[in-house]
Design goal:
Length: 218
């Protein structure tokens, strides 16, 4: 029997990625993701400055427990969603328009590209425009952060890579006797350096950025 592994990664002030939570679950429903968030809160984790997530409905609902936190929707997941709604012959053009949003020089240019995308594709293929609007401006949250960090914080690639490594390194394992045994193996891969989590791009810009954020909060 295979079950989902829910994982949460954090980024320390020095830019180092950290494994915060691993949990086996029967599904990725709101109640199971909610338990992850509650556990992190009970362990003393304050509301993050930014949450980078995919479009999972259960996770989206669970994150309401962190009222007002900024959310970045994974730009890679959204592109894949758009492709499923776009005719094959139009996908290259659609991707060019989408890239103008995601690889803009700044947030203002990205918002202009976003609006142009919606206007154009509402006519060419309404399902594509609707899919983009489902994520809304949460696709553009990363523009509020230092430019050097954009590559690291606009996708959930780090989580995807971690899950890929988990699958690769456990595929020869017939089964685990208990849930604890499975989690111990997975956690050990990170704790003992067999899977290494590096610092995010642009981590040297974080101290000055965080200082400004804390002043704004104060």
């Amino acid at each position: 029997m295979s079950v989902p592994v829910l994982a949460a990664l954090g980024v320390a002030e020095n830019g180092q990625k950290c494994l915060l939570q691993l949990r086996l679950a029967v599904s990725e429903a709101a109640v199971t993701w909610g338990a992850v968030v509650t556990d992190l809160q009970q362990r003393g984790l304050a509301a993050p400055l930014l949450l980078v997530v995919d479009g999972n409905g259960g996770l989206k609902n669970a994150l309401k427990q962190w009222d007002g936190v900024r959310i970045q929707r994974c730009t890679t997941h959204k592109l894949e969603n758009l492709k499923t709604h776009c005719p094959q012959h139009a996908r290259a053009e659609m991707k060019r328009d989408y890239d103008r949003i995601i690889y803009a020089d700044d947030g203002l240019a990205a918002r202009a590209a976003y609006d142009a995308f919606v206007k154009k594709w509402s006519t060419l293929c309404p399902a594509v425009a609707t899919s983009l609007q489902e994520a809304g401006l949460e696709l553009l949250t990363f523009y509020e952060f230092p430019k050097e960090t954009w590559k690291s914080i606009r996708t959930t690639n780090t989580i995807e890579n971690l899950n890929r490594e988990f699958r690769r390194r456990t595929k020869t394992q017939a089964s685990f006797s208990t849930e604890a045994a499975a989690l111990t193996v997975l956690y050990g891969l990170v704790a003992f350096g067999q899977i290494q989590l590096r610092k995010i791009d642009g981590h040297t810009t974080l101290p000055s950025f965080l200082e400004k954020e804390w002043k704004n909060v104060a």
